[in-house]
Design a protein that fits this description.
It contains 20 helices and 13 strands. The chain is α+β, with helices and mostly antiparallel strands.
Length: 594
C-alpha cells in the first residue's frame, strides 16, 4: 500500500476561516458550484465556429445536402470535417464551404463518439435552444471541477494545498473556451473522465479498492473516445507509478499494463475506422510525422507552459526563460519534501507533449493545468506556512512570497473575471461569422448569384451559406474567397473575365489559412482548379513553394449580375467594383478587432 499523503501545512498569514474553508470535506462540491456560476454567462453565447457545422449536420434542412461536410450524422462522424476523399473535397470547394487552396487529400477526422452523443442529445431535446445546450456544458464543467477537487484531496490529503489547487483549477480562465464553446465540450468531458480514471486508479493502488483496476482503464478509454487530449492521462498514470505508488517496481509497472492495453486498443480502432489527420497545417499526427512533431515540441512546449503559468507573451522571450529558472529554483525544496509535488510536476511537463501537435492555445491546457495548479498550490502553501515548516533562508522566503502574491493576483483575482468573459464569448466580444458574415445584406435573387469575397480578416466564406440556410434565408449559388486571411492585395485585370490576385507575403502565410493546407503540401506552378463557372490557376510561387500570384478566370464578365462582389472595409463587408481592364487596384490588409 502507499504511504499517506503529507500532513497539512499550517498557513500563518492566512485566516483560520480560510484554512477551514480550504480543508472542508465539501470543498470539491463548493468549487464545482463556484465554477458553474462563473461560466453561466455562456448561456447567452449561442452558436459559434464549428457549432454551425454541427447544427447543419444534425438539424439542417434536408433539401440542402450540398451544405453537409458529410452525409452521415452518426456520433462517430460528427467531428469528421474532411475525410481525405479528393472528390468530396472538390465538391466542398465548389460549393464554397472551404477555400480554393484546400489540399485535395485533406483529412481532419476525429473519433469522439461520446462527445458526439451529447450533441445528439441537445439536438434531439432542444434543437433551437442553444442556452440549454450551454447549460449541459456548464454541468459537465461543474462535474469536472468536482472530480478534480476529489483527486487533489486524495493525492494531497485534506490540506490547504489541496483546497487551494482545487480553487485555482476551478476559476482558471483558460477553461473559458472549453466550457463556453459547444464544439469544444469534448475537452471538458475527456478531462472529467481522465480525472475519474486517476481517482479510481489511486483508490485501487492506495486503498486496495479492487473495482478500480477495471474502472480506471474504462474511464481512460471513454476519455480517449471523447477527445484525443485524453492521452495526457497516460502520463499522469506514469507519474503516479513513479512518485505516489509504493512497493516493488515490478508491481508498479504491472499496474500500468491495463493502461497500455487501452491505448493500443484505442489506436487500433482509431486507425481501422479511418480517423486521423493529413495535409493540414493545424494538426500533426506524431505517428505519421514524428520528425515534425518533435520539432513542434521544441518550438511550442515552453510557450504552452508560459500560457499556463500566466507569463504574458506571444512567443518565448528571455524573461519567460528567467521566470522558469527562478520558479525551478524555488520549487527545489517543495519537490524534495513532497512526493505529490513531484507527481504534479511530472504530469504537467509530460502532458504538454500531446498538445504540441496543434496550434498552441490556452483552451488546450486543461490537463497541463491539473498538474500545474497542484504544484503551484504546494509552493504557495510552503511559502505561507508557519516558520518551522518552510526553508529558513530569506533567499527562498521572500521570492517565494512575492511569487505567491503574483499567483494570487493572476489566478485568483483576475482569472475568474476572464473565465466568465471567455465562457460568454469564446471568440471575443464580437463574432466575425455570426455578427458580420451572417448580417451581410445580399439583396434579392441571391440564390442565382455567386458571392465573391475578395478579401477578409478570416478567409472562410463557408459559414455564409450555412448561417443563411439555418435561418431559412436564400443561399448563394456558390461562395468564393479569392485572397488569404488578413493580407493586403494587389489586384489586376488583364481581360474582361479575369482577376489576378497578389497577396503581400503570399498565400498560407497566416495560421487560419493553413488549417486546410499545410506548408508541407506545396502547390505547383501552373496548378489549375476547375470549379463551376470559375477556373483558378497558380501563376507564380514564393521561394518556399506557396502561391504568390493566382489568376481567377470567370465564365462570365466580371460585371455580370450573377457575380456579387464583396470586400472588407471599415470593419464590415461592402460591395466591391472590379478594376477596369488593364487597371490595378490595391486593398489594404483587413483588420478585425476581437
Amino acid at each position: 500500500m502507499n504511504t499517506a499523503p503529507s500532513a497539512p501545512a499550517r498557513i500563518s498569514p492566512m485566516s483560520g476561516l480560510a484554512r477551514t474553508v480550504l480543508t472542508h470535506r465539501r470543498l470539491p462540491a463548493g468549487v464545482a458550484i463556484l465554477a458553474a456560476a462563473l461560466v453561466l454567462p455562456s448561456l447567452t453565447g449561442g452558436w459559434a465556429g464549428d457549432d454551425h457545422f454541427h447544427r447543419m449536420r444534425l438539424a439542417g434542412p434536408a433539401d440542402r445536402p450540398e451544405l453537409q461536410l458529410l452525409e452521415s450524422d452518426s456520433p462517430f462522424a460528427l467531428f469528421t470535417f474532411f475525410d481525405g476523399d479528393p472528390a468530396r473535397n472538390v465538391r466542398l470547394i465548389d460549393v464554397g464551404l472551404t477555400p480554393w487552396w484546400t489540399y485535395l487529400e485533406l483529412k481532419a477526422a476525429f473519433c469522439r463518439p461520446l462527445a458526439g452523443l451529447t450533441h445528439h442529445l441537445d439536438y434531439w431535446l432542444w434543437p433551437d435552444l442553444p442556452s440549454l445546450m450551454h447549460l449541459q456544458s456548464v454541468l459537465w464543467y461543474a462535474a469536472l471541477v468536482a472530480a478534480v477537487g476529489v483527486l487533489y484531496r486524495n493525492i494531497m490529503g485534506a490540506t490547504v494545498a489541496a483546497g487551494l489547487a482545487a480553487l485555482l483549477f476551478a476559476v482558471d480562465d483558460a477553461h473559458g473556451m472549453p466550457a463556453g464553446w459547444l464544439a469544444n465540450r469534448n475537452a471538458v468531458i475527456a478531462a472529467l473522465l481522465g480525472a475519474l480514471c486517476l481517482v479510481a486508479h489511486d483508490r485501487w493502488r492506495r486503498a486496495g479498492w479492487k473495482p478500480g483496476a477495471a474502472v480506471a482503464p474504462l474511464a481512460l478509454l471513454l476519455s480517449l473516445f471523447s477527445c484525443e487530449a485524453g492521452a495526457a492521462v497516460v502520463f499522469y498514470l506514469l507519474a503516479y507509478a513513479m512518485f505516489i505508488d509504493t512497493g516493488e517496481l515490478r508491481g508498479r509497472l504491472a499496474s500500468l499494463l491495463p493502461t497500455a492495453c487501452v491505448v493500443v486498443l484505442w489506436r487500433v480502432v482509431y486507425v481501422a475506422l479511418g480517423y486521423g489527420v493529413g495535409g493540414t497545417g493545424l494538426y500533426i499526427d506524431p505517428a505519421l510525422e514524428p520528425t515534425r512533431f518533435a520539432a513542434a515540441i521544441a518550438e511550442r512546449g515552453l510557450f504552452l507552459l508560459q500560457l499556463q503559468w500566466a507569463i504574458p507573451s506571444s512567443r518565448v522571450h528571455v524573461y519567460g526563460v528567467v521566470f522558469f529558472v527562478v520558479l525551478m529554483l524555488l520549487l527545489i525544496p517543495v519537490l524534495r519534501r513532497s512526493r505529490p509535488a513531484r507527481f504534479w510536476a511530472t504530469g504537467m511537463l509530460l502532458s504538454v507533449i500531446p498538445i504540441c501537435g496543434t496550434y498552441p492555445d490556452p483552451r488546450l491546457l486543461i490537463f497541463v493545468g491539473l498538474g500545474a495548479f497542484g504544484l503551484m498550490a504546494e509552493l504557495m502553501a510552503m511559502a505561507l506556512s508557519a516558520k518551522a515548516q518552510r526553508p529558513t533562508t530569506p533567499l527562498w522566503r521572500w521570492p517565494a512570497l512575492a511569487l505567491s502574491l503574483f499567483f494570487i493576483a493572476v489566478h485568483l483575482v483576475l482569472a475568474p473575471v476572464g473565465l466568465a468573459g471567455r465562457a460568454a464569448r469564446p471568440f471575443g466580444p464580437k463574432g466575425l461569422m455570426e455578427d458580420v458574415i451572417g448580417a451581410i445584406p445580399l439583396g434579392d435573387g441571391v440564390e442565382q448569384r455567386d458571392v465573391i469575397f475578395v478579401n477578409a480578416p478570416i478567409a472562410y466564406g463557408g459559414h455564409l451559406p450555412i448561417l443563411r440556410a439555418m435561418e431559412g434565408r436564400p443561399v448563394p449559388r456558390h461562395t468564393r474567397v479569392l485572397g488569404p486571411s488578413g493580407a493586403g492585395l494587389r489586384i489586376s485585370r488583364p481581360d474582361a473575365h479575369t482577376l489576378v490576385v497578389q497577396p503581400r507575403g503570399g498565400y498560407l502565410s497566416q495560421i487560419p489559412d493553413r488549417i486546410v493546407r499545410s506548408r508541407t503540401r506545396p502547390t505547383s506552378l501552373g496548378q489549375t482548379i476547375e470549379l463551376t463557372g470559375l477556373t483558378i490557376r497558380v501563376t507564380r510561387l514564393t521561394a518556399d513553394g506557396r502561391p504568390a500570384e493566382v489568376a481567377f478566370r470567370f465564365d462570365v464578365p466580371l460585371e455580370d449580375p450573377s457575380l456579387l462582389w464583396l470586400h472588407w472595409a471599415g470593419g464590415r463587408f461592402e460591395r466591391f467594383t472590379p478594376p477596369e481592364v488593364g487597371q490595378t487596384a490595391e486593398l489594404a490588409a483587413p483588420k478585425f478587432a476581437l
